[in-house]
Write a structure and sequence with these properties.
The protein is of the alpha/beta class. The chain has 3 domains: about 5-250, MetI-like (MetI-like fold); about 255-350 and about 465-519, D-Maltodextrin-Binding Protein, domain 2 (3-Layer(aba) Sandwich), CATH 3.40.190; about 355-445, D-Maltodextrin-Binding Protein, domain 2 (3-Layer(aba) Sandwich), CATH 3.40.190.120. Helices cover about 65% and strands about 10% of the residues. It contains 21 helices and 10 strands. It has helices spanning about 5-45, 50-65, 65-90, 95-120, 125-135, 140-170, 180-190, 195-225, 225-250, 265-280, 290-300, 310-315, 325-340, 360-365, 370-375, 395-405, 415-425, 440, 470-475, 485-495, 505-519, and strands spanning about 255-260, 285, 305-310, 345-350, 355-360, 385, 410, 430-435, 445, 460-465. The strands form 3 sheets. Strands 7-6-8-5-9 form a 5-stranded mixed sheet. Strands 3-10-4 form a 3-stranded antiparallel sheet, sandwiched between helices. Strands 1-2 form a two-stranded parallel sheet. Helix 16 (about 395-405) links the parallel strand 6 and strand 7 (about 410). Helix 1 packs parallel to helix 8. The longest helix is centred in the first third of the chain and has 44 residues, at about 5-45. About 45% of the residues are buried.
């Protein structure tokens, strides 16, 4: 089978789960949005002073980027969960389904509010007066006359809301909700364009099918064709049933492995999942989580295990700015994790994935740059590229302040595209990762850090508080501790990133385990 065929088959095998979960979150959000928006719209038609504030609020929500709105709900719900835990002894999961539903519910409100108000206000006043004139109460007039007449306009708003929700639901992956967005986010990071295209097409087809079935219902209502309306409604039910059955029936895994948003993390998460399954333990994955989200998810028990990096915890969570030897960092970090968050440090994997400034080798040699200190005098004429979070991290502030770096331009981009950007000369320097195989692939050189402004970044296995003493989990993962050096990790990353004979993260993880077992 060709590489395209293999990747397509792999994507198709995941479709029932991804589609089912996507539909579950979309339907729940749309239903909740309708339950809130329709009554509010009716009230707004009776009280004109409420109309502008309601529509203004819903319009403002639409100006917030979908990914940002989804991400904002996670810390909010996490705080509420902590309060309920303290007050009532029980909390709830703030990761995945709940923040996604709440954010998507807000996104669905504007078209329903606007169209319901427009539909009711557009009814001829004489018709309303006639309904009251024949003895109807205002309530009877609303349900017997106004809403039926406004229903075609309301249905148009529901169609728009449904398409918006289905499209925006693809952005729920970074907050831990499985959806068709898993294809897109994972595909972008691993440069699996078949997966990206598959996810885009699947989401578009779902939106088109739902929109057309709702359009059939809308025209049936407008033309008073009951059969047409019933066919549209039956089609919607059949689509939901076909998608929801696999989604609801997905087995619950005993362990959940988390992964951040880059290739190495997908590989390591696949490796841990494979090791757990090889030991007879069921394991699922939550991929594409941001650094803060995944750390908080582990502390709250929403995931059970993931790989983080000592420098990230040292600088971002412990808020430490002092440079310490690797042994000191690991010791103090382990003690802090246990005391402050209850998280268990199982151990370092054996390699370091440090932030490092990297340049194209020929460009660095041309300018005579070997260290970050050498870079300082050239920086005002150069452009630097970083991933989404690099320039907002304390590591960048420490690096910039220690050397007095002042670049001509800073560009943020997905980490997938940073390496090709520096190779093509679109930027001169990037915030590379020291264990990334693309450093060798694009013939880049990493600049040494003589002032040690960046802390060590040992890859470390972390266990959730409730799994700290889980013997089965420890036994399954302990063979990984201390067994992966940086050259082995670079080679594994390269296998998943190279243009020819590209491997999936799962295939790369199996190769990595063979190398570990051969040691």
């Amino acid at each position: 089978m060709s590489e395209f065929g293999e990747r397509f088959s792999e994507a198709l095998a995941r479709l029932p789960d991804y589609l089912g979960q996507h539909v579950i979150v979309s339907v729940t959000a749309l239903a909740l949005g309708l339950a809130i928006s329709l009554p509010l719209a009716v009230v707004a038609t009776r009280h004109a002073r409420l109309r502008w504030p309601l529509l203004a609020f819903a319009s403002i929500i639409q100006t917030i980027p979908g990914l940002a709105l989804l991400a904002l709900f996670y810390p909010l719900l996490l705080g509420i969960s902590a309060l309920t835990e303290a007050a009532f002894g029980t909390g709830f999961s703030a990761l995945g389904f709940l923040p996604s539903v709440l954010a998507l519910t807000l996104y669905s409100m504007l078209p329903v509010l606007r169209n319901t108000i427009t539909g009711i206000e557009g009814i001829d006043p004489a018709v309303k007066a006639a309904s009251l004139g024949v003895g109807m109460t205002p309530r009877q007039s609303l349900f017997i006359v106004e809403l039926p007449l406004a229903l075609p306009v309301i249905m148009a708003g529901i169609r728009t809301a449904a398409v918006w929700v289905i499209g925006t639901a693809t952005l729920s992956t970074p907050v831990g909700q499985t959806s068709l967005g898993n294809y897109i986010f994972a595909g972008l990071q691993t440069q699996n364009w078949v997966s990206v295209l598959f996810g885009c097409v699947a989401a578009a087809l779902l939106a088109i099918v739902v929109d057309q079935l709702l359009a059939l219902m809308e025209s049936g209502i407008a033309l008073r064709r009951r059969v047409r309306t019933a066919v549209g409604a039956l089609g919607i039910l059949l689509v939901l049933a076909a998608a929801l059955v696999p989604g609801w029936s997905r087995p619950t895994a005993a362990y959940v492995v988390g992964a951040k948003t880059f290739t190495e993390q997908y590989i390591l998460a696949s490796l841990m999942q494979q090791r757990l399954q090889a030991n007879g333990l069921s394991a699922a994955r939550r991929d594409g989580l941001g650094s803060t989200v995944i750390f908080n998810a582990l502390a709250s028990g929403d995931i059970d295990v993931y790989v983080d990096y000592s420098g990230t915890i040292w600088a971002n969570h412990m808020r430490r700015t002092d440079a310490q030897p690797r042994e000191v960092v690991l010791e103090e970090m382990g003690a802090w994790l246990k005391k402050e968050r209850g998280i268990a440090l199982l151990g370092p994997l054996g390699f370091e994935n440090a932030y490092a400034l990297a340049m194209r080798r020929d460009r660095a040699e041309q300018l005579g740059i070997r260290t970050i200190a050498d870079l300082v005098r050239h920086a005002p004429q150069l452009a630097i590229g970083g991933d989404y979070e690099f320039f907002d991290r304390p590591e960048w502030a420490a690096l910039r302040d220690a050397y007095g770096l002042n670049f001509r331009r800073q560009r943020q981009m997905d980490s997938t595209f940073m390496y090709s950007a520096v190779a093509n000369g679109e930027v001169d320097v990037i915030s590379a990762f020291s264990s990334d195989g693309r450093i060798a692939r694009f013939d880049l050189v990493t600049l040494t850090d003589p002032k040690q402004a960046l802390p060590p970044y040992d890859a470390v296995l972390l266990l959730a508080p409730r799994r700290a003493d889980d013997k089965a989990l420890r036994d399954a993962l302990m063979p990984l501790v201390g067994k992966i050096d940086v050259e082995l990790m670079r080679e594994t990353n390269l296998r998943a990133d190279r243009d020819e004979d590209k491997e999936t993260p799962a295939q790369a993880a199996r190769w990595l385990w063979k190398q570990i077992g051969a040691q």
